[in-house]
Every structure is written in structure tokens, then in C-alpha cells.
Specification:
- By secondary structure, this protein is α+β, with helices and mostly antiparallel strands.
- 45% of the residues lie in helices and 21% in strands.
- Strands 1-8-3-6 form a 4-stranded antiparallel sheet. A 4-stranded antiparallel sheet has the order 2-7-4-5.
- The longest helix has 27 residues.
- It starts with 7 loop residues before the first helix and ends with a helix.
């Protein structure tokens, strides 16, 4: 493994979908910029343009929108091995509808859109890798929409526990409540009724 790779998490993530030579891996990793964010620090604010997609090496990020009443609506959490950004803004260069903020101190690897597109030309397998990630993100988003329309709050909480078992007892209850679309008080009652 080339010395420029800061963490095995990235290699494991790539290896699940594609096989890169050492030279290809080194070229890819040379385009990644290490970045650290502290808890409650923003990688992206609503209204900004997402210049980078971020791979989470350690820590946890949340992607969310804030409504006109100031309430957060968490779309997703990104834990080690996940990529996070406002995908729409990243691709179109339009203003972000989401904010991306650290839930914990987080180590990231940033990849700009221009570097990503250049890498697609130089290493076509990376285009397949990111296509698979986008397909998975689309499926996950559709499932979230269906869950919100068809499942009870208890069922949404149970799905959250299966999807993010490492976060259930590690993040504030209000964040989980925001993700499943209930108040923290209501979520407390759901948890107490177990």
C-alpha cells in the first residue's frame, strides 16, 4: 500500500467495489486532501457550493437541512467508510440545500469535483466505484422516503438502530429524533417502552 494513504478504511471501501493497481491507488490518493473538523464544525453550510466530497476516515458527520422554524432535518449520518456531501450541489455547482457538520471530531479525505472528473478519465474503474456509491445512495434515499411515509416512529427507530448500531448510544438523542422525524421527548417514550 502506498505511504500516502492515511488510513486502511479507504482501501477497504474501494476494495469492496473495484480493484486498483498500486499505481492507480497512489494516483487516486494523491488527489485526496486530509482535513480535520472538530465537533460542531461545518464542512459545508446551507447556501454554499459543495466544492468537495468527503470520505470519513474517523468520527461522524451529519448532513441536514434547517427549516424556516430553525428545526434540523437530518438526511443522513456519515460514519467511517462513508462519503458525504450535498451531492446535488457537488455535481451542479449550485447552492447547497444541506449543511454538513461534524457530530464528533472527524478526520476526512476531501476530493474536489474537478479532480474526481479527471480521475474518471485516468482511472475508469473509479467511475464504476462512484456509480455504485451513487446507486446505493439513491436506494437509501428512496428507502428513507418510503420509511417516513409507511413506518411508525417505533419502526423508524428500529431501522435506525440496524442502520447505525455504532451511533445508538454514542450521539445525542435529539439527533436520532431529528433523523427519524420525531421530537426527543417522543423518542424517549419509544425507548422507554422497549
Amino acid at each position: 500500500m502506498p505511504a500516502s494513504i492515511p488510513h486502511d478504511t479507504l482501501v477497504a471501501n474501494l476494495s469492496r467495489h473495484i480493484s486498483l493497481s498500486e499505481d492507480e491507488l497512489a494516483l487516486f490518493c494523491a488527489r485526496l486532501r486530509p482535513h480535520k473538523v472538530k465537533r460542531k464544525e461545518f464542512l459545508l453550510r446551507q447556501g454554499e457550493i459543495a466544492r468537495d466530497s468527503a470520505f470519513v476516515v474517523s468520527g461522524c458527520m451529519k448532513a441536514y437541512a434547517t427549516d424556516t422554524n430553525g428545526f434540523e432535518h437530518i438526511l443522513r449520518f456519515a460514519t467511517p467508510g462513508w462519503w458525504v456531501s450535498d451531492l446535488s450541489s457537488f455535481i451542479t455547482k449550485r447552492q447547497s440545500q444541506l449543511a454538513v457538520e461534524a457530530v464528533r471530531d472527524t478526520q476526512l479525505l476531501l476530493l474536489s469535483r474537478s479532480d474526481q472528473l479527471e480521475l474518471f478519465d485516468k482511472i475508469p474503474k473509479l467511475e464504476r466505484y462512484f456509480r455504485i456509491l451513487m446507486e446505493n445512495a439513491l436506494v437509501t434515499t428512496q428507502m428513507r422516503l418510503m420509511d417516513n411515509m409507511t413506518l411508525t416512529a417505533r419502526e423508524r427507530y428500529q431501522r435506525f438502530c440496524r442502520m447505525y448500531p455504532e451511533l445508538v448510544n454514542e450521539i445525542p438523542l435529539k439527533l436520532i429524533a431529528s433523523f427519524i422525524g420525531v421530537t426527543p421527548e417522543f423518542l424517549s417514550r419509544i425507548r422507554a417502552a422497549k
